[in-house]
Amino acid sequence: MINKNDYTYVVSASGRINIIGEHVDYCGGKVFPAALSLKNTVYIRPNGTDKINLSWTTLDEKVTLDINKLGEYKHLEYGNYQAGSAYVLQQAGYKVLGCDMVQDCKVPFGSGLSSSAAIEVSTIAALLAISGESLSNPEIALLAQKAEREYAGVNCGIMDQYASACGKLNNAFILDCKTLECEYVPIDMKDYALVITNCNKPHNLVESKYNERRSETETALEILKTKFDISCLADLSVEQFEQGKDLLSGKILDRAKHVVYECERVKLAKNAMILGDLNLLGQLLNQSHASLRDLYEVTGIELDTLQKAQIENPYCLGARMIGAGFGGCTIAIVLKTQVENFKQEVLQKYEKAIGYKPTFYDSYIDNGITVEKV
Ligand code: GLA
Predict the structure, then answer these.
(1) What domains can you pick out in the chain, each with its CATH number?
(2) Helix, strand, coil shares of the chain as percentages rounded to 5?
(3) Which residues of the chain have pLDDT under 50?
(4) Which of 76, 231, 252, 294 is the most buried (most CB within 10 A)?
């Protein structure tokens, strides 16, 4: 048990869902994420040394990092995200103090709910709290993204870290990943609930497949730039894409088509949410999943089986995979009074087809970073 009074700050950052806009953040597109009440919480106190002592509520490990050698911990099984976060902060010219940190992660690992972003963002915010330096939440998100890219080796976009840092209670937000302009949109699901389900597929080379998709979109962009004056794939309208698509073929065509149409779906989903048209929102979720399955090829049998079982339920308006894919979670829009029946039915169908159970998470849409001085 942690006694919070033994620490100087308690700092949290969130896991996230993404309503729609998948695999478009690194193409300059708009995404529609929200922060969750599932969080990584850091208990921190300065210790007057040049060491960061790390421990976890969920692990027996203890790891010590030398603050003069923060670049050297990439290989660590535990503590590499924290080391990477401290490292990028230091590299950016901010003071990193020796400290004791206990990490309490309630974002399930490998779930596609961005546990890594929650760890990076909360670690950076905690280090800033004890050093007294201040950065805005979007600035913290950018540093956390740098840690993920340069230290963890995933060439990710900005969506996860931004949601983890800047989320707002009961709101999702449209984030323009090209300009970082952010517009909060209140989430009013009326009689419906957003159900989050983990397909529980064992972790499987997500990083390398993710980086491969990203480079395929870069190839598409280079080719399309010969015809259009664009700086990213998301600059292309559906009409322009239809005019120029003959320049592309095979997988590269499929990937680009997903990105362009998914960007269009984000616009429609934002309006549907504002107008309270949950039927339309559900259809857009289904279209997004189909595109991620058939064109972007990031779903897999587990996520497809789960999503299919979900949309077969008469009280489900739509469902789709979220995050990088290749495993992880779906979100589904389900009539509140039917949620328990829905879960039972989905669990049975999924277990029968796949051989193990999915996990349902209870969570709500919450704030991003919170800092409490003890
Ligand atoms: C991962 C990445 C994000 C984003 C999603 C897919 O979660 O970290 O930047 O690209 O995949 O939308």
Answers:
(1) 4-186+366-373 (3.30.230.10), 192-361 (3.30.70.890)
(2) 45, 20, 35
(3) none
(4) 252
